[in-house]
Amino acid sequence: MSSKQGGKAKPLKQPKAKEKDYDEVDMANMQKKREEEKALKELKAKAGQKGAFGGTGLKKSGKK
Questions:
Q1: Which SS3 state, helix, strand or coil, does residue 19 take?
Q2: 38: closest CA among 50, 30, 28?
Q3: Distance CA 34, CA 23 (A)
Q4: CA-to-CA distance for 54 and 47, rounded, in angstroms?
């Protein structure tokens, strides 16, 4: 009861996506988005260097 097809079946190949034609408005929006992402990464890196924000709230003492 063995079949001739052994192993995993290969997935069908997807057709390659065509390059989209972008107009000036689309290009400007993409450039703006890239700049915002770059600024956000810089802010995250800067915040990561400083450590924790402000106070940590209520602190528990060792006393019971």
A1: coil
A2: 30
A3: 17
A4: 12
3-state secondary structure 10-61: CCCCCCCCCCCCCCHHHHHHHHHHHHHHHHHHHHHHHHHHHCCCCCCCCCCC
pLDDT in tens, 4-47: 667 788 888 888 888 888 899 999 999 999 999 999 999 988 88
End-to-end CA distance of the chain, in Å?
73
User: Residues 6 or more apart from 30 whose CB is under 8 A from it?
Assistant: 22
CB neighbour list of residue 22: distance below 8 Å, 6 or more residues apart: 30
